[in-house]
Amino acid sequence: MHLLKTPKINLASFTKKARLQRPAMLRFIKKLEQNTPKQLKKWATEAEQHTWQQIDCTSCANCCKKMTPTFTPTEIKNIAAHVGMTAAEFTEKWLYQHKGDTDWVNKTQPCQFLDSSTNLCTIYEVRPKDCAQFPHLHHAKPADYLHIHKQNIQYCPASFTFIEELQKIIASTDK
Ligand code: SF4
Ligand code: SF4
Questions:
Q1: Whole-angstrom Cα distance, residue 111 to residue 60?
Q2: Following DSSP, what letter does each residue of 73-114 receive, concatenated?
Q3: Is residue 9 lining ligand 2, measured as CB closer than 6 Å?
Q4: Which of 2, 67, 74, 152 is buried most deeply by CB count within 10 Å?
Q5: Are 56 and 6 contacting, i.e. CB atoms less than 8 angstroms apart?
Q6: Which residues line ligand 1 (CB under 6 A)?
Q7: Contacts 24+ apart (CB under 8 A), 13-16
Q8: Which ligand is nearest to the CA of 128?
């Protein structure tokens, strides 16, 4: 999560806009996957900077409301200890595994650790790596995360803005 002083996010209007623009964005991402430009890392860094100038995660928290992180066994142990439970108690109370899957995920949304009055994570220091890295805008190989953005642009204003910024940057280089 990023804590910058930026305009507040209106999730209702974001959802409407994302629904409308998603098909074109998916086509854009698919093209990047099929023909990844050499400058993608540079452009992604620029797009990420522009994104965090526009997005205030504390006015959103949609990832914690609509999605679930995966919890590794070590994370389960650490978070359980942090909240005064055993790993078995924690897993029983809060998590489940999809049939045939080894990943542990939240049983319910919003996440049990979201403080809905502040939109802040109450286990921030020990939150899963999946949460710490979300929305995956900052990676050495941005091409490896394009498929993640495809899933996230409809829920995450930061992912959506990141792709929008990439579109602008690439369009300006085509001129
Ligand atoms: S959904 Fe995206 S913009 Fe919203 S809080 Fe999560 S990372 Fe930030
Ligand atoms: S652990 Fe914290 S950051 Fe992760 S989904 Fe739950 S509230 Fe959000």
A1: 14
A2: HHHHHHHHHHTT--HHHHHHHHEE--TT---EEESSSS-TTE
A3: no
A4: 152
A5: yes
A6: 1, 55, 57, 60-63, 134-135, 155-158
A7: 14/157, 14/160, 15/154
A8: 2
Query: d(Cα 54, Cα 158) in Å, to the nearest integer?
Result: 8
Q: Which atom of ligand 1 is closest in space to residue 67's alpha carbon?
A: 1
How much is the pLDDT for 175?
64
pLDDT at 2 over 50: no
* Cβ–Cβ < 8 Å for 47, 28: no
CB atoms within 10 A of CB 143: 14
Q: What is the pLDDT of residues 63-101, one digit of tens each?
A: 999 999 999 999 999 999 999 999 999 999 999 998 888
Quote the strand ranges of 4-78, DSSP E. 70-71
Tokens 């953005």 identify what position?
149
Asked if 68 contacts 111 with a C-beta cutoff of 8 angstroms, the reply is yes
Sign of the Cα pseudo-torsion (123, 129, 135, 137, in order): positive
What is d(CA 102, CA 105) in angstroms, rounded to the nearest whole number? 10
